[in-house]
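SAMPLE LOG
Freezer: B-3
Tube label: C17
Construct: single chain, 371 aa
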Amino acid sequence: MKSTKRHEKNARIFIILGTKAQLTKMAPIMLEFDKQKIPYKFIFTGQHKETINKLELDFKIRKPDFVLYKGKDITSILKMSFWACKIIIKALLNKRKIFGREKNRVILVHGDTFSTLIGAIIGKLAGLKVGHVEAGLRSFNYKNPFPEEIIRVMVFKMADYFFCPGNWALKNLKPYKGIKINLNSNTLLDALNLAAMAKKSSKLSIPEEKYCVCSIHRFENIFNKNRLKDIVEKIKMISSDLKVVFILHLPTEKKLKEHNLFSELKNNKNIEIRKRYGYFDFIKLISSSEFLISDGGGNQEEASYLGLPVLLFRNTTERREGLGKNAFLSHMDEKKIKQFLKNIDKFKTNKAKIKKSPSLIVAEFLKKEFT
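STRUCTURE (predicted):
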C-alpha cells in the first residue's frame, strides 16, 4: 500500500532497515500499520539494496520514504566503515526533513545488524526514542557471533522500548532500563503465514529428486579462510549422499572466489548453485526440502516454525527456537554432522500455530503511545 503525503506528514513512528532479513521480519508490522492507518516513515540504509527490491513486491509494502545510500550492496569491512559514517552524517544533516518537528517520536530498529546499530545511533542523536524489535536475544559470547553479539548489547543500552520474541529474551533484558513488551513469538511467524498464502513463482524450480538447501553468510564463517574451507568440505561430504541446493549470498560468493573455493562447489555435480530468491520462493524451496543447512538465526527460526530439520553450521546460537527438537547445533564436528544425517526423521516436528499476531501486538502498543 502506497502512503499519501497526508498519511506521512505527522508521522511519529520511523522504521529504519537495511537488510533483507530485517525487512522480512518488519514487513508484517508495516502492513499492520497500513491496515490500521498508523502514520509512519520508512528509512532505508541501503545495506542490501540489490536484494531487497523483490521483498517489497512480495509483501506489497511501499517503497522507502528516504534512502540513505544508493550504491551497491556492502560486502566488505572497509566498505562497511565508510558506508556507516556516510549515512549517519547524511541522516543528521537532514534530520528535520526526515524526522520532522513532532514531539514524542520513536525510531524502530530490528535485530543485530550494522543497520540496527546505526539506526539506534541516528535515533538517539536526532532526539528520538528507540524501539528495538527482536530484543533480548543473547549468545553471551562477544566473540561468537561477532560482531552481532556486541551490536545487540550496544543497542540494548540505547533502547527505550524492547519488543521481545519470547520469555527467554524478556529475562535477558532484566539488567536494562526501558519498557519491555513480550510478543510471545517472532514477527517472522507472520511473514511465514503470508508466504504460505502466496503462489509459487514461475521462476522457482523445485528439484525432482530429494535435496537439501544450504545458506551460508555469517561474518565469522565467511571472513575466516580456514573456517570457510572447512564449510566447503562439509558441504561436499553431504553432497555425496544428497543433492545440495546452495543459495549464494553476495559476500559469500566474493569470499569463496577470493580463496579459490568457489570452483569446488561449482564443479561438483551434486551441488547446484543458485542466486538468492525472493522470500516467498525461498520458503517454498526449503519447505519441499529434506532439511536446511544454515548459519542464520532467521533460518533457524523459519525451520522451527515450519517443523523442518535444520543443521546449524555454528558453534553457538542466540536463538532458542528448535533446539533439542528440529535444530541441531553442529559445532562443525564431522561426527555430529553424520549423526544428524543418519537421523533426519527424528528432527522433523509439527508446524507452529500462531495465538496472536506479534506484529499486531507491536502495532497496537505503538498506536497508543505515538498517535
